[in-house]
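User: Second chain of the day. Same drill as before.
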Amino acid sequence: MKAQFTPYLMSEDARAQAEFYRNALHGEILSVMTHGQVPGTPEENKDKVMHMAMTIAGENMLFLSDSFESTSSSRRIVLSLTFGNETEALEAYRNLSEGGTIKYPFESQPWGAYYGEVIDKFGITWQIVKQ
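Assistant: Same format as last time:
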């Protein structure tokens, strides 16, 4: 069986979160669909993001949507980015930690890689690895 894996994040503010990732991870927003594009959407939800597609750190796809429920748990999903270049890995780590919380410093690990973990300002946990 083959399948494509694409993380899909439910957000309190998908536009702001996507803009943060666009800057932090050199991403690009590819498309945005709002609930207002669907007939019958209540007026208060028309500007909410139904589906947003973007790339991050190269060609990695990420989808986002405004959630109608609380998105409070940072361990509900953990995203891992593996880099071949230490400078790029450290840049991503630093960028994602802005306004967030450093869980584990980005440093050499006993298994031979560099590793660090942050919770970004939107509550998403990121593992940054340099192989």
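The CA atoms of residues 101 and 121 lie 8 Å apart.

User: Great, on to the next one.
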